[in-house]
Hints:
- The chain is mainly β and about 190 residues long.
- Helices cover about 5% and strands about 60% of the residues.
- The chain contains 1 helix and 10 strands.
- It has an 8-stranded antiparallel barrel. A two-stranded antiparallel ribbon has the order 4-5.
- It is elongated and about 70 Å long.
Amino acid sequence: MTRIALLACFLPFLAQGQSFQRNEITFNGGYGWQAAVPNGSPRLSAVSLGGTYGFRLRPWLALEGGVLTAINPTGLINSEYGYFNIHDRFTWVPFGVRFILPLRHDRFELSVGAGGVYERYSGGNTTPAGYGSSYNGWGGYFKPEAAVALDPGRHFWLGATPQLLLVNGSDGVRDRWFVLTGDVSFRF
């Protein structure tokens, strides 16, 4: 009797009740560049890795949230005190909406997303010159995206996403980053 009750509870999840997959898990990797540089500072760049979860409310509208990092953007610093590797990282937590352009071909998709973002800069090693002090802040992001389905069931997707992150951090820090990633998605 217990097996029948469990089957009755989980059978609706196996049925194809909608014409589109509502859930999307995306893993991405790429490279990021600092878009605006304060006077006298070098332009930072770094390898970027992240992941996103999206839930489609409608075929053309999704809510999404995730995490994106820029790993060791400062690199090796030369100062009057010597050479230092800070081992720092930026961590962004974007959350917002994505609008999907309805196309006739179900295997190709164009979309645009925007929303808020929380930023955490973590400096691993603070130097005598003052580099590596941690801070956080809030801002927004904007991203267009193009993706193509890899299988007939449209469960696996391959895409590319350029995104702009604008954050005003504590102590008057203003971070502007452009990140370009390649994406691998699974939809169910």
